[in-house]
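Notebook entry, structure prediction.
Reason for the run: the old model in the group folder had no record of what sequence produced it. Starting over properly, with the input documented here first.
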Amino acid sequence: MNRKKWLIGAGITVLVGAAIAVYSMQVTQGDPAVNVEKPKKAPFSENVMASGTLESEKVQHVFLEPERGSLDKVLVKPGDKVKEGTPLVQYQSSGRSEIRQAELDLKRAKLNRSQLYRQLKEVQQKGAPTTVSGENGPQAVSEKEIRHQIQLANVEVQQAEERLKQARSNEAKRVVKSQYSGTVIRVNQSSEATQGGGPLVTVADLEELMVLSEVSEYDALKIKEDQKVEIRSDALPDKKWSGTVMEVAPAPEDKNASNGGESQVVYPVKIDLNDKVSVKLGARLIVEITTSTKSALSVPESAVVKQGSNDAVYVVEKGKAYKKKVKIGATDGKRVEIVSGVDAHDKVVTQPPADLSNGAEVKIQ
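New structure, fully documented this time:
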């Protein structure tokens, strides 16, 4: 009898212990501790990302020009510092003899005109025709005839002056000079250049640099002058520089697609550098153009969970967490814009547990 009572008592103890354990688990599982935050305003920006190349704002390419004559020599080498007007390329020319002949022709025309003016003065003093030497001996010429000859002589002087001007211009063309102060970055005297292909000499101003980028037709509609730009380089991942949109091309360029695909329509964008960059001319860069900015209601990205194909957050009301569908917008990598679904007074769970269920009781930390 005593043994039977002992067994019954032990059984009751086990049942009571199990019930307490189950209740404790339910309380522990049903009341998870969570952190909450009310949605708050945060700045968001819309950006366009593209690749770009570091270029000089002032670049001069000197190509072979056969109309100037035969190439004589290139007068500079890579790395040379040049000023505006520095000779870069020289062509062969017989210009000096042409100039000398033009000078003699002009002198002769002016002497002939001076002689005619002396004859005119003599006729006017005599009041009668004067005698001049001609091909058939002395001839009498009137004032009218002399004035006509002076008109012809004036034409000859003008023509001689034009021939001298042209001869000097031709001589000047035999030397190609630098249009800017800068650095000679390339000299090419290979057959490609001397046959009219690539440039013989390239001069660039390394003090006035810009980034040349290309964007799609869609993105070009959003990009305007004076928009801010962040510039980075894969070669220097810890560096970044600032810039400003200087110009968006009004007309597109066709860019051939790889693998024989259809050509792409792109719009060149020039970006002015606000900082001095530590990469070389021609370096490939990454540009991020800020096309718009706004202040909007936001929550931490960790607060947003998926609800099928939709987004949702948990909102705590009277000790319970309720899942609310939300529409999200822009993100800055840490916070996400809330377009609709919650307002600034809601208590949003910032890091909801993976097993949190809709309507579950929670404890706010």
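Summary: The two ends are 54 Å apart (CA to CA).
The old model has been moved to the deprecated folder.
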